[in-house]
Amino acid sequence: MAQHVKPVLVWFKRDLRVDDHEALTQALLEGPVLPVYVVEPGYWANDYTSGRQWQFARESIAALDAELTALGQPLWTAVGDVVEVFERLHSRFAFQVIHSHQETGPDWTFQRDQAVKAWCESRHIQWVEHKQHGVIRGLANRARWASQWASVMDAPCQPRPVTLPLVATPPKPAMEVVAHVSIADERLVGSQPGGSLEAHALLESFLESRGERYRGGMSSPNTAETVCSRLSPHFALGTLSVRTAWQESQRIRARFKSEKSAEAKRWSASLKSFGSRLHWHCHFIQKLETEPRIEFEEVHRGFVGFRPIEETRLDWMERFEQGQLGWPFVDACLRCLAQTGWLNFRMRAMLVAVASYHLWIDWRQTANVLGRWFTDFEAGIHFSQIQMQSGVTGINANRVYAPIKQSMDQDPDGRFIKRWVPELESVPVAWVHTPWRMPVSMQQQCGCLIGRDYPEPVGDPVQMAREARARLTDWITTHDLSVEAARVLKQHGSRLRQARPRYGKKTHSPQLPLDI
């Protein structure tokens, strides 16, 4: 490259792809591109980050580097503070413009972006941030949010670059850089591989075959593992754009809508549900974008102090983390998530509800545990959903899941239970949902003594739920919640449909799950 030509820096963050990448497309119109990714140790030290997330990120970085290298310019990868990395790059390349996508992340990334903004201003560098998906920065309320989301999703995808002029070869290949990052690996069962190729393969298999029974199979963990798209970690790291998934799925849906066969009806219904969940993906992230404090504080201020952290029973919290509550289906879900990094939405919601109501654990504690377990951790969805399922948003229906009923409904033959709680492998199906009720003679016969081979239940789930509902009712009746509920509704409520009021006024109650 001629020395007088200054490159344009493209900062890859949670957009590890080259397809439908507006920042990359726009940067190429201005000059040769220097693509940069910075591994930030500070981010990976947070309570909600984990080795499984890093493994997925590392594979996605490698895939991105391979794609960029094939186009002509390898990825410049560094480890450290972003501002310090940019300072070093600026001293060498004297770039005057940075392009990136907007990022709606936890407070840590917001503070980092503020530092980068200050650095750019001090160096008179223009930082251009592009919209990543349907989340809108600076939104005052949800009056026209749905139509704005649709306009973004229906706009043409950005073209894939044909070539990238070589600016300079990085001093070290990306994989050599990330190989020395000291984030402990986690041994998972069937962890999902990262990278755009994997994302597109998943989307293709979902739209060709797996997605046909999505609508009917997403609730049970036995079927959800296959029929769900499994794209959520790819959306979280941006190895696939939400817009690409939206447009491809709607294209297939349009094809089936005109057909009358049973197969066509299943596909049409399933892809309609899938499209709804892509919509809700951005809907929940928008909550964090609009009100970042919800990472730390209750959405509805009237619920501050509802579950004091000091009331958390540490022994129950420990049993929750170990999948040793003595409720087989709940334990199976906890162990599945801990060992694979993924669980379908309905079961995630049940786990949060069990932690919040039955065990009376503050939502912040649950958020950190589950955040580390989710390979697909997405801050906006995570904190918004944790609060919603724990009943502190003030505008959503409070769902106190019945663990035994969920067990019988979603895993009637105990297949999922026995897969993840092998202690109960020999227990007859008639008792596998409530093994503590087995006669001792039956326990001895099947070689599973409760209290020795599998723990006694942490309590009676029916009675614990009854006590939780009473505490919730008492709180609602002794606190004036309606004014704050109206504020939350105005700021965060969906405009797609209306529901009956939660606390005395008409409100909206978005409860569609996010099984994407």
Record the SSE blueprint.
Elements: E1 8-12, H1 22-28, E2 33-39, H2 51-71, E3 76-79, H3 82-93, E4 97-101, H4 107-122, E5 126-130, H5 145-154, H6 174-178, H7 196-208, H8 214-217, H9 221-227, H10 232-237, H11 242-257, H12 262-290, H13 314-322, H14 328-340, H15 345-358, H16 363-373, H17 379-390, H18 403-410, H19 415-420, H20 429-432, H21 440-445, H22 461-478, H23 482-492
Parallel strand pairs: 1-2, 1-4, 2-3, 4-5
Helix pairs in contact: 11-12, 12-17, 15-17, 16-17
Feature tags:
516 residues; 23 helices; five-stranded parallel beta sheet; disordered C terminus; 5 strands
3D structure, described in words:
The C terminus is likely disordered. Helix 4 links the parallel strand 4 and strand 5. This protein has 516 residues and is mainly alpha-helical. It is 50% helix and 5% strand. Helix 16 packs across helix 17. The two termini are 44 Å apart. The protein is globular and about 85 Å long. The chain has a five-stranded parallel beta sheet, with helices on both faces.
**Class of secondary structure makeup:** mainly alpha
H/E topology pattern: EHEHEHEHEHHHHHHHHHHHHHHHHHHH
Give helix % range: 40-55%
3D shape: globular
Spatial order of strands in the largest sheet: 3-2-1-4-5
Number of helices: 23
Annotation, overall tally of beta strands? 5
How far do the termini sit from each other?
A: 44 Å
Portion of residues in beta strands equals 5-15%
Biggest β-sheet: count, sense, barrel? Answer: 5 strands, parallel
- Average pLDDT, all residues: 93
What Rg do the Cα atoms give?
A: 24 Å
- Unreliable stretches, pLDDT < 50, 5 or more residues? 504-516
